[in-house]
Structure formats: C-alpha cells, structure tokens
C-alpha cells in the first residue's frame, strides 16, 4: 500500500519514517526541547493548537501511550476525543472506514491511531484525509516511541552521531525495534539488534546502519545505549523459546551484561517491563536507567509531533 | 534591496535607546526590581543594550531574558510553513518585578499580545511595560508602547527593517516598499 502522504518536503502524517528527512527529524527533536521547557513551567499549557480536535483512536489496549498523547494534545490546547474500539460500533459490524468517516464528519482535525493490524494507520490516513500519527500498528511501526528513544539518547550525549544503540529481545514482534532501526541510523547512530535466532528476522540487517546478532555480549560491547524490549509472553506459544528462564539467562539486560557497554552507557526500555525477565530490577532502577526519563520525554516529543503536523498550511 | 529612506542611523539608534533608558528610570523612580525581556529576534539585543545603559545610569544589575512567542501566535493556521520555535529563557523569578518587554517594531500589536500571554504563563510580574525602537502604527488591538524610539507613520504597503550590529552587522532602521507578490 502506498502511504497517502503529500508530495513535497513536509510530511502530512507520521506513519513511519519513510517520508521524513534527517533535517525534519532533527527539527522535530529540537522543538521537543521547547515543549519540554513548557512542561517545566508553572502553566504547562500553550495555545498553539487552540480550536483543533485530536481523536485518539485506540483499537488495541494501551494506557501509557494514550495518556501521553492525550496530555500532549491538551498541553497544546487542542480538544481531545477518545475512541476505544471495545465500546464502539465496530462490535456491531461497522467497518474501520465507516467509523473514520463518521469521526471526520464530526470535524476531527487529526488522528492518533493504535491498531493490532499492520497498515491500519495508513487506512485511517486514506479515509480521513486528515493528519494521522501512528501510535503502533501490529509489528510494523511505533514511530513516536522511537522518537522519544532518540530524544532521550540525544539529551544524554548531545547528539546521535556516531553513537551505538543495542536493542535486545523479541525483535521479531517488536514495532519499537523496527521503528528504531529505521530512525536512529537516519540521525547518525548505529543499531545492533540482538535476540535468539527464532526472534530475530534477518531482513532488518539489510537496513543501512543496522546489524543483527544472536550474541548479547557482542551487541552490547561499546554501546552508548542498551535497550531491553518487553518479552511478549502472550506471543511465546509458537515455540520461539525453550523456556523463559533460559531466555533470561542469555539475554537479560543486567549488571554483568552492562559491563560490556561504554562507561556511562544508558539503559532504556519502552515498557511495560517484565522485571527480572528481560531486565534485572537493579538495572531498571539503577543509575544508568533512563526509563522514567523516556516516559517524561514522550509527552514533549508527542507535543512536537502534533505541532509539526497541525500547525501551518500546506 | 535599496531602502527608500533611512529612518534612524547608528547614532540615532544609540541616542533613542539612551533616551528610553532615561525614561524607564524616571517612570520607575530608579531601576530596582526591574527586568528586561526581549522578544525574538531583535528585541533581545535591544533589551541587552538597554540593560547596560540602565546599569550605567543607576549602578544596579538588571536581569534580562528572552521570549519566543511562536506557540502563542493567533495566526498559526495562516502561516505558510511551520514556524521555528526558538528559546525562551527567563532565568529569574518574575514575581514582584516590573518587566519591560522590548521589541524592535510595534505594528499590529499581535506580537505584543502573544508576548503578554506568554509572559503571564511564566509567572506574575508586578507590572509589564513595553519599549519599542519604532512604532509604525496600524494597530489591530488596543495596545500602546510606554517607550518609543521613533514614531513613524507608514503605509501598509511599506516595510520597516531594523538592522542591529548583533544580528545584521550594522545599526540602521530602513523603510522599504513591500516586494510585490509573484503571481
């Protein structure tokens, strides 16, 4: 399916990073700095999106991403309408297309879409004709999570240029890993993806700036940032792993593995965490952890994304 | 582009700022509890220059800040491109301070309105005053400056260009005809 983006240098949607140049992405992260300042002020609100309505359409459960987007939109003075699939007419057989067309008739100005099917955000973009932000579709993309990861690394080191980021875990099912593998090399970083062979799709190695390995020590060696992914236990019934204990033995991000990384390396996790499975509790709560910083940064980054997509005319 | 008139030379800019500094001291009966906040872009060096003059006059240190009003503009849906958001930096407590907002040109008043909103979101100053280098008229909002370097009646088809050493390498205020829009 072709992404329904507008021609020219300004992307109309954030579905993935295909249409986003490094310059645009850098501008987006730069503006997130300003948004972050807004969040530190006594009045955590600016009128930039006053009069606009953002619909968060979540067809899959999520608390933190939805709350983060809704707060981001409200901090920019947009009105927010929240739509949860469980309580909708989708249960009565209405199609996604009809649902989106009805919401658009209610004068929604932008959509934030989470959906279990890859490509659903593209469909919403096509049928709404409005800017769409992909908040996670199937295994394909979760671009704002990758942006907040990039922002957190940049905040720590000043730049992503020349940095190495190791991502460990269930790469196969992870839209976060896929989006990071697309984004971080665009900003000058190298990405090492690591997991058991059964959870490591080889096609990602074809992306520029990306390598894959099954050896966690090799992945983490000299890395500036180490990201543990949530082991999606609900997806582990397909014989991908011999046992969770064995997985933790080999691939857990813990103090021993972290010694391989660059001194001063930071630890990231997109959450929610399985403590002492993919990440040890002492590392998750330790000095090198930036996991809560990621959550905090998520709001500023999402404010910047909304600003970029909704402010100014074509 | 050649200007159709020079409104203020470098010396006249300097003298206008000196006069404004004296007026600020007179009106505020000194410079205690004053702060100067420049509006991006050229308001910032003007605020810094005024602060130095006030310090020379009164012997007290005057804190300065910078304000970007992009997120407060009421015409964001009309601008052709995404505006660049620049840094807002007000590294002092606004409470119990008299703040002088500083900008280069006062025109419709919309920038000042946005700046007032932005400033009040940062804290609660005791009072806010407005200093501009040039007031060119054509107000769209009930806003007036407390300190004006030069009152300059203009046509809407004209453009006032303020150039400052810090941003443009030279101090001068020029009047230009607005370039015609290409079809």
UniProtKB/TrEMBL annotation, chain A:
L-aspartate binds at residues 92, 175, 230. GO terms for biological process: 'de novo' pyrimidine nucleobase biosynthetic process; 'de novo' UMP biosynthetic process; amino acid metabolic process. GO terms for molecular function: amino acid binding; aspartate carbamoyltransferase activity. Residues 161-309 form the Aspartate/ornithine carbamoyltransferase Asp/Orn-binding domain. Coiled coil: none annotated. One of its GO terms (cellular component) is cytosol. Carbamoyl phosphate binds at residues 64-65, 114, 142, 145, 271-272. It holds the Pfam family OTCace_N. Keywords: Pyrimidine biosynthesis, Transferase. It comes from the Bacteria. Pathway: Pyrimidine metabolism; UMP biosynthesis via de novo pathway; (S)-dihydroorotate from bicarbonate: step 2/3. Its EC number is 2.1.3.2. Catalyzes the condensation of carbamoyl phosphate and aspartate to form carbamoyl aspartate and inorganic phosphate, the committed step in the de novo pyrimidine nucleotide biosynthesis pathway. Heterododecamer (2C3:3R2) of six catalytic PyrB chains organized as two trimers (C3), and six regulatory PyrI chains organized as three dimers (R2). Belongs to the aspartate/ornithine carbamoyltransferase superfamily. ATCase family. HAMAP family: Asp_carb_tr. This is Aspartate carbamoyltransferase. It comes from Deinococcus terrestris.
TrEMBL record, chain B:
InterPro entries: PRTase-like, PRTase_dom, PyrR, PyrR_bifunctional. It catalyses: UMP + diphosphate = 5-phospho-alpha-D-ribose 1-diphosphate + uracil. GO terms for molecular function: uracil phosphoribosyltransferase activity. A motif (PRPP-binding) lies at residues 99-111. One of its GO terms (biological process) is regulation of DNA-templated transcription. Residues 11-151 form the Phosphoribosyltransferase domain. Keywords: Glycosyltransferase, Transcription, Transcription regulation, Transferase. Pfam families: Pribosyltran. It is an enzyme of class 2 (transferase). Regulates the transcription of the pyrimidine nucleotide (pyr) operon in response to exogenous pyrimidines. Also displays a weak uracil phosphoribosyltransferase activity which is not physiologically significant. HAMAP family: PyrR. This is Bifunctional protein PyrR.
């Amino acid at each position: 399916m072709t992404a329904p983006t507008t021609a020219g240098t300004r992307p109309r949607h954030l579905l993935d990073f295909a249409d986003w140049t490094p310059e645009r992405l850098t501008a987006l992260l730069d503006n997130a700095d300003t948004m972050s300042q807004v969040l530190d002020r006594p009045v955590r609100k600016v009128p930039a999106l006053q009069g606009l309505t953002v619909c968060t359409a979540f067809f899959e459960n999520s608390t933190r991403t939805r709350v983060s987007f809704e707060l981001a939109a409200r901090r920019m003075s947009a009105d927010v309408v929240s739509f949860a699939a469980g309580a909708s007419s989708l249960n009565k057989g209405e199609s996604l297309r009809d649902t989106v067309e009805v919401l658009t008739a209610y004068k929604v100005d932008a959509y934030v879409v989470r959906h279990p099917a890859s490509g659903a955000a593209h469909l919403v973009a096509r049928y709404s004709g409005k800017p769409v932000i992909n908040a996670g579709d199937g295994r394909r993309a979760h671009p704002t999570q990758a942006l907040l990861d990039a922002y957190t690394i940049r905040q720590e080191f000043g730049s992503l240029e020349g940095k190495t980021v190791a991502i460990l875990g269930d790469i196969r099912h992870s839209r976060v890993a896929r989006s990071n593998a697309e984004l971080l090399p665009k900003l000058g970083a190298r990405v090492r993806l690591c997991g058991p062979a059964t959870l490591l799709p080889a096609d990602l190695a074809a992306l520029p700036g990306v390598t894959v390995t099954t050896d966690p020590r090799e992945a983490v060696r000299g890395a500036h940032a180490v990201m543990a992914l949530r082991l999606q236990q609900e997806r582990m019934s397909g014989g991908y792993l011999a046992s969770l204990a064995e997985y933790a033995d080999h691939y857990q991000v813990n103090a021993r593995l972290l010694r391989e990384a660059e001194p001063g390396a930071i630890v990231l996790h997109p959450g929610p965490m399985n403590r002492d499975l993919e990440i040890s509790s002492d590392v998750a709560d330790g000095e090198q952890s930036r996991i809560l910083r990621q959550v905090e940064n998520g709001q500023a980054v999402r404010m910047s994304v909304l600003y970029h997509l909704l402010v100014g005319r074509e | 582009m050649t200007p159709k008139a020079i409104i203020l030379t470098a010396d006249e800019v300097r003298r206008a700022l000196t006069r404004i500094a004296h007026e600020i001291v007179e009106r505020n009966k000194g410079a205690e509890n004053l702060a100067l906040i420049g509006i991006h872009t050229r308001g910032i060096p003007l605020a810094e220059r005024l602060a130095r003059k006030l310090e020379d006059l009164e012997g007290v240190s005057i804190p300065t800040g910078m304000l970007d009003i992009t997120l407060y503009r009421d015409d964001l849906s009309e601008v052709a491109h995404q505006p660049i958001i620049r840094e807002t930096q007000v590294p002092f407590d606004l409470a119990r301070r008299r703040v002088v907002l500083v900008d280069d040109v006062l025109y419709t008043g919309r920038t000042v309105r946005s700046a007032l909103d932005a400033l009040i979101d940062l804290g609660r100053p005791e009072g806010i005053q407005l200093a501009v280098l040039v007031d060119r008229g054509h107000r769209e909002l009930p806003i007036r400056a407390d300190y004006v370097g030069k009152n300059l009646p203009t046509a809407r088809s004209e453009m006032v260009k303020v150039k400052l050493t810090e941003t443009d390498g030279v101090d001068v205020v020029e009047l230009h005809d607005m370039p015609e829009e290409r079809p």
